[in-house]
Amino acid sequence: MLKINEIFETIQGEGVFTGVPSIFVRLQGCPVGCPWCDTQHTWEVEDENNIPVRDMMAKSTDTAMWSAMSVSDIFSTLEDCGYTAKHVVITGGEPCMYDLNELTTALNQDGYSTQIETSGTFPIQCSMATWVTVSPKINMPGGLEILASAMQRANEIKHPIAMQKHIDELEQLLAEKPAQPDTQIALQPISQKPRATELAIKTCIDRNWRLSLQTHKYLGIE
Ligand SMILES: C[S@@+](CC[C@H](N)C(=O)[O-])C[C@H]1O[C@@H](n2cnc3c(N)ncnc32)[C@H](O)[C@@H]1O
Ligand SMILES: Nc1nc2[nH]cc(C(=O)O)c2c(=O)[nH]1
Ligand code: SF4
Ligand SMILES: [Mg+2]
Fold first, then answer.
1. Which ligand is nearest the CA of 158, by number?
2. Rounded CA separation 66/110 (Å)
3. Which of 7, 87, 139, 151 has an alpha carbon 20 to 30 Å from 178's alpha carbon atom?
4. Boundaries of every domain in the chain
5. How far is the CA of 27 from the centre of ligand 1 (A)?
6. What is the pTM of this model?
7. Probe target for ligand 3 pocket from 94, 190, 191, with the most ligand atoms within 8 Å of CB
8. Residue 169 burial class via C-beta count within 10 angstroms: exposed 0-12, middle 13-18, buried 19 and up
9. DSSP run (H or E) holding 201
10. Superfamily for 2-219?
C-alpha cells in the first residue's frame, strides 16, 4: 500500500515539464529534512493520521493526514475525479521510499506518462518510461552509491539553490557522479528569493543550464 498525502490536478510548475497539465500524487514521509523544504507537512508518517480516502481527497489545506491506497484504489480515485491530464507526477515527501514499479507500469499501460520528483536518497524503483527528476540532496542521508545511481537514472537534475555554495556543490557532484550526456540540468531558486533567482539566472546563462521557476507559486495555484 502507498501512503498518499494528496492527489490533485494542476499544471506542472517546475522543470522540463513546466506548463503540462498534470495529476499530482503526493506520498507521505521524508527523512531528509531540507531546512527550506516547502512540504514539511509530509515528513512524518503517524499512524493516527491515517484517514479514509474520501477525507484525504476533501482536504483543503496542507496537513500531515494520509490514506493507505493500493494501485487499484488510485485508479478508482482518478476515474472518480474525472481528470483530463494524461501526465502523472509522483512526488512527496520522498516518493522513492516506496516501490513505484507497479504504479508507474500500470499508469503507462493505461496511457499516462509518468514523472517522479526525487531527492536521490533512496533507490529509484519505477518503470523505464518514467521521467525521473532528481533534485540531489548533497551531504544528506542516503549514501553515495544511491546518489550515484540516481544521477545515472536522472532524465533531469533540478537543483534548488540560494547561494554560490549550492552551485559549487552541484558542480562537484556532477564531476564525481556524472549524469547521462543528455540529462537536462536546471537550477531552481529556493522559495522565489530575489537574490537566489538573480544568481540562478546568471549561472544558467554562464553554464548553458536551464532555469526552473516554481511557476505555480507565482500564479498562486496548487
Ligand atoms: C517537495 S520536493 C518532493 C520530492 C523529493 N523529496 C525531492 O526533494 O525532490 C519537490 C521539489 O521541490 C523542491 N523544493 C522543495 N522546497 C523548495 C523551496 N522552498 N524552493 C524551491 N524548491 C523547493 C525540491 O528540491 C524538489 O525538486
Ligand atoms: N504545480 C505544482 N508543480 C509542482 N512541481 C513539483 C511540485 C512538487 O511539490 O513536487 C509541484 C507542486 O506542488 N505544484
Ligand atoms: S527531500 Fe524533498 S520532501 Fe524531503 S525535505 Fe528535502 S525537499 Fe522536502
Ligand atoms: Mg510543491
1. 1
2. 25
3. 87
4. 2-219
5. 13
6. 0.98
7. 94
8. middle
9. helix 194-207
10. Aldolase class I (3.20.20.70)
